[in-house]
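Batch manifest line 277
LIGAND: NDP
JOB: complex structure
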Amino acid sequence: MFADGLLAGKRILITGGGTGLGAAMAERFAGLGASLVLCGRREEVLRETGERIAAATGARVDAIRCDIRDPADVDALFDAAWAGGPVDSLVNNAGAIFVARSEHLSHRAFDAVLATSLHGSIYCTLAAGKRWIAAGRPGSVLSILSTAAITGRGFTVPTVVSKTGVLAMTKSLAVEWASKRIRLVAIAPGTIPTAGFMAKVAAGREGEPEAPGDNTLERPGRPDELADLATYLLSPAADYINGEMVVLDGGRHLRNSGVEDLLKRSDAEWEAQRARR
Ligand SMILES: CCC/C=C/C(=O)SCCNC(=O)CCNC(=O)[C@H](O)C(C)(C)COP(=O)([O-])OP(=O)([O-])OC[C@H]1O[C@@H](n2cnc3c(N)ncnc32)[C@H](O)[C@@H]1OP(=O)([O-])[O-]
Ligand SMILES: NC(=O)C1=CN([C@@H]2O[C@H](COP(=O)(O)OP(=O)(O)OC[C@H]3O[C@@H](n4cnc5c(N)ncnc54)[C@H](OP(=O)(O)O)[C@@H]3O)[C@@H](O)[C@H]2O)C=CC1
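JOB STATUS: finished
ARTIFACT:
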């Protein structure tokens, strides 16, 4: 689909790059010639993914453990990443979610999600932007958000607040940093049944993660489809796209926000889910 070597010479840092959508983007970028920095909290997972992609593509893949909730950890990540050559693009992919009734959330539950999905994405974006501006280099930031940033979504409020906040950051910095040649874009996926999605979002829910009729195309999305869009948005072909969030959901958000089954749940069903945690 893309020209060989489209991303040759580019160095791309992907948060949460060891699993799911992050790993799918990593594989695609490396196959098109990019060198990678993958980060996450689990060193073993990162190493395995990094080695697999390096063996398959011949790309340089640096796997660096980092908890993006910790600004000192983020600074150390970016220092280590830059030591291997300047980073050209950041992908804010790491995120956190759980499905729960909001009136049952403690402040610590809210903080657990915001710390990763909102604060962590901001720390990484600032760490990249400061370095690009100091070096007079261009850069691009791609954030993996959600259609919930458009529709809102009950029962996952901390995640939705985070995604909406990162969308606001994307639009705002797209304007503020345009003169520095830094571009910010986002993708809003619908349902893509990764292992993380199945464990955190689909667990305990009836039926398929995306049932026929949930979206206009009657199937869930695939990680490779997200990787294709991410490649386009980070490539020179998308140089004129700035501050935009592109939806990849088979038209689902035009039909529903994805919580119709949860609205029908009984107290007993919610209690059963809480007990399973
Ligand atoms: C919207 C778009 C679609 C998006 C899809 C995806 O993102 S797919 C990708 C999905 N991938 C991922 O999400 C991967 C990353 N996810 C993670 O690392 C974790 O799931 C986490 C950080 C979100 C929670 O970590 P953890 O469970 O280790 O949490 P902790 O032990 O640190 O506790 C902190 C506080 O949270 C509370 N609490 C926890 N669960 C629940 C609950 N179900 N109910 C209520 N509360 C809950 C817990 O009780 C505690 O409060 P307390 O009792 O002290 O007052
Ligand atoms: N799959 C889907 O349908 C949808 C996904 N998304 C978004 O796509 C992104 C990827 O999700 P997906 O691939 O499905 O699920 P995963 O659970 O596989 O992805 C989450 C990744 O983030 C990493 N991560 C979590 N917390 C931290 C942290 N504090 N510091 C560093 N890394 C962290 C995890 O690694 P580790 O645990 O080792 O730290 C993991 O690699 C998320 O932002 C998600 O919200 C949005 C809409 C739909």
